[in-house]
Amino acid sequence: MTGPISQALAAFRAKPQAAGWLTLPFFKDGSAEAVAAKVDAVVASGVQVLPPPDLVFTSLTLTPLDRVKVVVLGQDPYPTPGDAHGLAFSYRGTRRLPASLRTILTEMAADLDVPMPKSGDLTQWAKQGVLLLNTALTVEAGKSGAHMKFGWSELVDQAVAAISERQPAVVFLLWGAPARKRAALVDRRKHLVIEAGHPSPLNRLKDFRGTRPFSRANAWLAEKGLAPVDWRLDA
């Protein structure tokens, strides 16, 4: 009997929205099944894995490959139960917003001259073509970074490369050193790359605030004849 993450993978494969993503080597050469098996082994040992299995592939489901127009890369899901739901930086918890997300939304509000949103759920962004993809799709409760070396990063590298190759015009918002390393996978002749420091308060350089990525992304998309993203979350 397969474990919950393997079952979630099988369910993802059956969805029409998965078609583009399933052409990646990660989903064709057994890598996806191998990573799912690693995570299932952790679950079988009694450790709580986040987000819930049915939400692990949310980012790819809500934003099919052929609809991607903005890419935001995160690191791994929030390690507190109830917070993460499969989208990078997005938050469904009941406490105050996580520090990095608060920095992102503060910048968005200042950049676009709109009110600071009360919600931290970024589902509306994902539905508009903003791929919110974490470098690892799973984490262990209370143990940030636990699955960063499980093999999920192959998926991220292949996704970025495929988007660069197949999509006509995409904005890549690369925040922090791990995300910025993937700029090398992007064809800058076709796409816009906006790099900045990580929005985490632990970033000593504080080189995220004031970069205005949201207005810059929308201006460029408009130049390409594409609909801008409505970044407001409480609209």
TrEMBL record:
<dbReference type="InterPro" id="IPR005122">
    <property type="entry name" value="Uracil-DNA_glycosylase-like"/>
</dbReference>
<dbReference type="InterPro" id="IPR036895">
    <property type="entry name" value="Uracil-DNA_glycosylase-like_sf"/>
</dbReference>
<dbReference type="GO" id="GO:0097510">
    <property type="term" value="P:base-excision repair, AP site formation via deaminated base removal"/>
</dbReference>
<keyword id="KW-0378">Hydrolase</keyword>
<keyword id="KW-0234">DNA repair</keyword>
<dbReference type="InterPro" id="IPR018085">
    <property type="entry name" value="Ura-DNA_Glyclase_AS"/>
</dbReference>
<dbReference type="InterPro" id="IPR002043">
    <property type="entry name" value="UDG_fam1"/>
</dbReference>
<feature type="active site" description="Proton acceptor">
    <location>
        <position position="76"/>
    </location>
</feature>
<keyword id="KW-0227">DNA damage</keyword>
<protein>
    <recommendedName>
        <fullName>Uracil-DNA glycosylase</fullName>
        <ecNumber>3.2.2.27</ecNumber>
    </recommendedName>
</protein>
<feature type="domain" description="Uracil-DNA glycosylase-like">
    <location>
        <begin position="61"/>
        <end position="221"/>
    </location>
</feature>
<keyword id="KW-0963">Cytoplasm</keyword>
<dbReference type="Pfam" id="PF03167">
    <property type="entry name" value="UDG"/>
</dbReference>
<comment type="function">
    <text>Excises uracil residues from the DNA which can arise as a result of misincorporation of dUMP residues by DNA polymerase or due to deamination of cytosine.</text>
</comment>
<dbReference type="GO" id="GO:0005737">
    <property type="term" value="C:cytoplasm"/>
</dbReference>
<keyword id="KW-0326">Glycosidase</keyword>
<dbReference type="GO" id="GO:0004844">
    <property type="term" value="F:uracil DNA N-glycosylase activity"/>
</dbReference>
<comment type="similarity">
    <text>Belongs to the uracil-DNA glycosylase (UDG) superfamily. UNG family.</text>
</comment>
